[in-house]
Description:
The chain has 500 residues and is α+β, with helices and mostly antiparallel strands. It contains 15 helices and 17 strands. The protein has a 6-stranded mixed beta sheet with strand order 12-16-11-15-13-14. Helix 7 runs antiparallel to helix 11 (333-342), helix 9 (312-321) runs parallel beside helix 15 and helix 14 (440-450) packs antiparallel against helix 15 (458-471). The longest helix has 16 residues, at 362-377. It starts with a helix and ends in a 14-residue tail after the last strand.
Amino acid sequence: MSLLFSACNSREEDPEELILSIPSDPISLDPLFSTDLSSRTLGKFLYPFLFQKTSDGKEDDPLVESFQLKGSGEVRSLRLKLKTHLLTNGEELRARHVKESLDRLVNTPGPRRNQYSFLKGTTVIGEKEIELKITGGLRQAVDALSLPPSAIVCCKQNESDPLDAESFETLEKNNISPIPKAGRYVLKEWKKNNYLLLEKNPHFHGNLPKKIRLRILASASTGVFLFSKGRMDLMRLPNFLLKNPNLKKENLYFRKGSGVQYIAIQAKEPCFDLNFRKAINAAIDPNLVIQKLLEGNADPTFGSVPQGTVSETTRQEILNKNSEIGAVSGHSKILAIEYLKKSSCYPKILEREIDFRMRGDEENSANGLALAGFLKEIGLKIKIRPLEKAILYKENAEGKGDLTLLFWYADLPGAWNFIDPLFSGKDKGNGGNRAHYENSELEILFSKTRKSDSLNLESETSKALQILLKEYPWVFLWSPYETFLISERAKRYSNLAEFL
């Protein structure tokens, strides 16, 4: 800790540099392997996207100026016309650069590669026009090309060179012989477990600071201390720190509905049958945790989706078709025990130690402890296992852990992005489906939706939620308000919080 503060104080303050906080070193700076929050945060700074939207659904400086879907049959043509976009050397991003990046996306094995199996070929048809051969629907293509893996990686020094994303290994090589980059920022320095320094693309004229230092802080309390000393400009703030007397209301910024916290129930475990899953959903009262631990800064989810992402009409239709939803969401200990007694492994399940995993930071550990308390009240033995993030994700992908407390931050707005890929049989583990759950009705629905050209998925969302609120593959918890601590300097950049 003293090293952190001495390093902070020894650096001369740069008026053109803003300091932001991320919770850990990114697992990878390669968009193909960006499965954690820190990696995805860096990706927004370092790479442009063909299609891009803010959390409220507005366009956010996408590369595509216009697009046109042509043809019929199984494989169709999606033609993209690119905007003028300047690389760090002042040259324009060309269609050939986009082709190289998309070919890399399709041909490189990665955790979300399956999501891009619809992309069957790319052809440059002009300096700023490219044709994509796609199967499936327009909506699937546009959404997938807005997600982190599809970020445009650029460029190659020589035609024969491989196309490399930013990385710790390539940083030194880039500083010796700079390769043109396409993002709003370029990585200039990375001191692991300390910070990453980004410098703005000199040819990007958007309202963003010239330099950004992303300080790696596992402890949010340390971030608040640094903020009080003028050494932090923007950071996520966990709810348990909102009572800090040094915080001022004018330095708080709230954003709703971008993510959900849930407990993934290991679908491969035969003892975790439907009655067991209903039992633990009935036992846990999210409202109580929201009031007591989260300071009221969250809303209970409706199934897997945040409130507000489905209409009240759709919500009522689902509730009217399944009266049991209301009973389970009433969170009755008596009802929970009744369900538990009907489960296939009762009463032996009471003797088994259930492995409950979570991130080892302060907030997740506190939430996990409270949630475990509800399960102990219905007679279950719970082993709380806080883990370092990379280990948690790696072992979850391997199918380890009985119950896992997790966050999902949707890359795109809309309820469907809290359904697919989170319950897709093709995306188990690192692909997003952390419960390793699969349902044949949902798979048919996913297949149909991925072939749709419609951008309105309310009907499909309703059908999916009916299945999920019948099956309970998760313990459905809450959608936290994202709370940010923001300095007066950072307020000059209105979209900066969108990056965190």
